[in-house]
Amino acid sequence: MPVRIPPIQCLLTFEALARLRSVTQTAEELCVTPSAVSHRVKQLEQIIGTKLFGRADFSLTVEGVEYLAHVREGLGMLQRFPSSAASSGKRKLRLAVTPTFARSILIPRLRQFTEAYPEIDITLQVSIPLLDVVAEDADLIIRFGTGRYADMEHVCLTKDEVTPLASPAFVREHGPFELAQDLEGEPLLRSPLEPWRTWFAAQGLDWPEPLEGSQFNDIGLMCDCAAAGMGVALARLKLAQPWLEHGALVRLGHSDAFTRNIPSPHAHYLCWRTGMMERWECVAFADWLKASLA
Questions:
Q1: N or C, fewer C-beta in 10 Å, the chain?
Q2: Against a cut of 0.90, is the pTM above it?
Q3: DSSP states of 37-93
């Protein structure tokens, strides 16, 4: 049987609703009634046999994100025809990202987004938590912290767990490690982003936060130094995955103290200024990132 191509009005309505996230605004843009918007979306979902919107706020399903990329590509080709020399009119999206999140989590996935949305040019800028290193005029910001951000709207992207990690050579030279108390006297690498007291408390230790030892304001740098044998890092497992996969960092032992993961009190959040989600490229990236990390 021939594959049925969805009506163009259904595709236009889907693209507009995914961009505007409002039935009323979509209806106004397309000069139709709100009920017509809902009817067209339902018709499109029936034709392609999949659900495109997941919740009442019109956030896209994983299939919806993928299909939206194809729809926009097709609509873009129709819009450019017949003048192939017309300006591409690419949209610009400026992202402020913490360094290790960018290297470990975002960049390995970013090609998926650029292939799905070739009409969006991305500028990546570095921001460092707890310091005044903030990317200027970023459209979207990825922050790491408690989530109490009164200055911006935000959504939690991913939580993580922590555990002590060190280089294989360090474990051989300083081990064996069986109890949490075996870390007493060992060089503990420090970061205000991930205080040791979280892990100490989970192990039933009343030890104070270490006041001596090398300190880092970037988790990636701390992992690099731990891999070089400088000491033990309390590392977030998702961010430390590249070092673990290559064997540069390992767990200290096989006992419960070193195999049980402890939830970090902090998480990564996607943040934006009020009104920023009225831009479809911001919505597209936010929906894609949440779906890719789910």
A1: N
A2: no
A3: HHHHHHHHHHHHTS--B-STT-PBPHHHHHHHHHHHHHHHHHHHTT-TTS---PEEE
